[in-house]
Design a protein that fits this description.
Blueprint: E1 25-31, H1 50-58, E2 60-62, E3 65-66, H2 72-81, H3 109-115, E4 119-125, E5 152-156, E6 168-169, E7 172-173, E8 183-184, E9 203-204, H4 207-211, H5 218-231, E10 238-243, H6 264-290, E11 295-301, H7 309-316, E12 341-344, E13 353-355, E14 359-360, H8 364-371, H9 386-389, E15 400-403, E16 412-415, E17 418-421, H10 440-447, E18 454-455, E19 458-459, E20 467-470, H11 486-500
Parallel strand pairs: 1-10, 1-11, 2-13, 3-14, 4-5, 4-10
Antiparallel strand pairs: 2-12, 5-6, 6-7, 8-9, 11-12, 15-16, 16-17, 17-20, 18-19
Helix pairs in contact: 5-6, 6-7
Length: 530
């Protein structure tokens, strides 16, 4: 599968690179829609996250870390493969009829570690497509997680706001009755109607399987499955990739967490997430002590916070989802993709440290490779951030970064302190306050965040058509400096143009929100390689 990966000579290992006997257990927790300002160690005051804060106190907190996209499915593709999702023409959330978008011969963080002798598991939200065509949920969902490097899987196939509302374990829907198959269309008799949850009319049948999916117990169920799997591990190293549904809408915290925050269901759902983190990390570290291995924990989020209806209520209560950042999920402004990122590795990662050096989730592939003494596959966008994890470098290892949103017109570039956007606005959600898809320029009329090109929720007619921000001196992106630095704009536009040429000549993947420019649909068919 990964013929391009080669073992390094032990003589060239870094001091922390390890033999198979010394390989650390690795736990990666990727939250859903958790904004930069949603946890207390990143500034939240209406929400308390003691378990996540403890990770930061015992490890390293990153303040300039990014998902590869401001959108869920593309972001997950980038994290898994170390490749910009634009390279496969992936821009938006994938539906329940989408084939697997990761080629089965593509290296992933799962297959990399699996081939190095790790037991691997993915638990939680998948949202990367299943099978080679339109999935039949009554049959094995193959190819899926197993075929891209995960020996065990217990997944929510798409998203907790969209059907089918079932769990799938190792490729099979949990609790499915062959006498009551899942059908597309028809009249469902099982879906709970909740705010910000939809799609209940797309599937019918499979009543028992759907009843096992309790919206208010998803978080605790995923935690239980994680603990069960962790406690089954022997002396071999293990890798758990936990993709929580917290805090994606609908906001359904278990009863014990309801009413515990100062910003409604939004904060309560974060509190449940914090509990999940605490339980999983505690179990992983205990298991590590039992099998004589260190435990590396990475905590992050797939994209920035979303200003949906529940998010707007939290904002009104005084909570700032993305802290001082401008923008939200789906958009290329910083709030859409700058995310919490914490690394804990006792004895290796300096406790209580932090860094503002630029890192991306696509770098996990190459970083994991170096940790286990391997080289990263050729042809990926990932670079190793191991020295950054260990606090060994002062200057950023990553010099620049492509940042993607839901709009192909907003392929953006981070280089040093600069963020360049080649079009007006952030290219994300654009509805006014009071709508589920509130965001972008229109949201500023209510949030009162400043941007020199925006007035009364509209992009000024005489404003530049491109954007350039100095994030070192203007983190909130209040002033567009594009007209003051024309040569830098020209240089960064060339970077955008080069990347645009690298978009795969395949059909566009993922839903594109109204008002966003989509990459062109191609004529060639996109297929998962066997």
């Amino acid at each position: 599968m990964m013929k391009s990966i080669q073992l390094l000579s032990f003589g060239f290992f870094f001091a922390v690179s390890v033999s198979a006997k010394q390989a650390p257990n690795i736990v990666l927790i990727n939250a859903d829609d958790l904004g930069y300002g949603d946890v207390s160690c990143y500034g939240a005051s209406k929400i308390q996250t003691p378990n996540i804060d403890r990770l930061a106190a015992d490890g390293r907190r990153f303040t300039d870390a990014h998902s590869s996209s401001a959108v869920c499915s593309p972001s997950r593709f980038g994290l898994m493969t170390g490749i910009y999702p634009s390279r496969v023409n992936l821009w938006g959330p994938l539906g329940s009829d989408q084939h697997l978008v990761i080629p089965t011969d593509q290296a992933t963080i799962g297959s990399l570690l699996q081939e190095a002798g790790y037991r691997t598991a993915i638990i939680g939200k998948w949202h990367l497509g299943l099978t080679q065509g339109v999935a039949d949920y009554n049959k094995p969902l193959v190819p899926g997680p197993k075929e891209v490097g995960f020996g065990y899987s217990f997944i929510v196939p798409t998203v907790n706001s969209g059907p089918p509302f079932v769990f799938a374990e190792n490729g099979l829907v949990v609790g499915l009755d062959p006498n009551d198959p899942i059908k597309r269309g028809g009249k469902p008799n099982y879906a709970k109607k909740l705010p910000e949850k939809g799609g209940d009319k797309r599937f019918s049948g499979g009543k028992k399987a759907h009843e096992l999916y309790d919206d208010f117990r998803i978080g605790t169920k995923l935690a239980e499955q994680s603990l069960k799997w962790i406690n089954m591990q022997d002396d071999k190293p293990f890798f758990l990739c936990l993709m929580t549904t917290n805090i994606h809408h609908p906001f359904t915290p278990a009863e014990r967490f309801q009413g515990t925050s100062q910003c409604g269901a939004y904060g309560d759902f974060v509190h449940e997430l914090d509990w999940i983190v605490g339980e999983v990390v505690k179990a992983a570290e205990a298991r590590g002590k039992a099998n004589g291995r260190e435990t590396l924990v990475i905590f992050t989020s797939d994209n920035g916070g979303m200003l949906n209806m529940t998010g707007q209520k939290a904002w009104t209560a005084g909570h700032r989802l993305n802290g001082d950042l401008l923008g939200y999920k789906f958009g290329a402004w910083e709030g859409g993709h700058r995310v919490p990122f914490i690394v804990k590795w006792p004895g290796k990662v300096p406790a209580g440290s932090e860094t503002n050096n630029l890192v991306s989730q696509i770098d996990l592939l190459a970083t994991f490779a170096e940790i286990i003494g391997q080289t990263a596959p050729t042809g990926v966008d990932s670079i190793s951030q191991l020295d950054e994890f260990l606090g060994r470098n002062e200057k950023p290892l990553r010099k620049d970064l492509i940042v993607l949103s839901n709009s192909s017109n907003h392929i953006s570039v981070r280089t040093k302190k600069w963020l360049y956007l080649p079009a007006p606005g952030p290219g994300g959600f654009s509805a006014k306050w009071g709508h589920h898809l509130t965001g972008g320029v229109a949201a500023l009329a209510h949030t009162k965040q400043a941007n020199s090109n925006v007035e009364k929720g509209q992009w000024k007619a005489d404003a530049p058509r491109v954007q350039l921000y100095d994030l070192e001196n203007d983190l909130g992106q209040s002033t567009n400096l594009a007209r003051k630095h024309p040569e830098l704009v020209k240089q960064l536009q060339q970077t955008v143009d080069r990347h645009r040429k690298q978009i795969a000549d395949v059909p566009r993947l993922g839903w594109v929100a109204p008002g966003n420019k989509a990459a062109p649909q191609r004529k060639k068919k996109s297929r998962v390689k066997k």
